[in-house]
Amino acid sequence: MTIHNLYIFDRGGTCLHYSEWHRRRGTGIPREEEFKLMFGMLFSLRSFVAKMSPTDMRDGFVSFLTSKYRLHYYETPTGLRLVLNTDPGVTSAREALQHIYSHLFVELVVKNPLCPPRQPVQSDLFRSRLDAFIRGLPYFNPRPT
Description:
With 145 residues, the protein is of the alpha+beta class. The protein is built from three helices and five strands; from the N terminus they run E-E-H-E-E-E-H-H.
């Protein structure tokens, strides 16, 4: 099992952070266009799930699975959206996304007076701690080729 990439979006759709680890194939489009497409897809999926649910869903949309990857989704009460793409075998990365938000993003970005709000993250400390955390997850290892 492995982790491919991570997106962090603000409530307006601006990509505040992007990292990739074991992504084997690019999209063939500019990065900014990829961010817009990803955010649009998340917006649509979230809306679709909310409308189609037969009951009032507390968590709403948390992931979806394809034959090649699983997309894990976590939205904070403030509208920050974290997206982690992994191999299909990773059943849940919710705790990891919650940890990234509460222990890394809040502590190293939100509480940092040198990081302007609603701007792409420029903190090297955040990037290095995020990378160390992701590499320490049990499902980080690259899949055999």
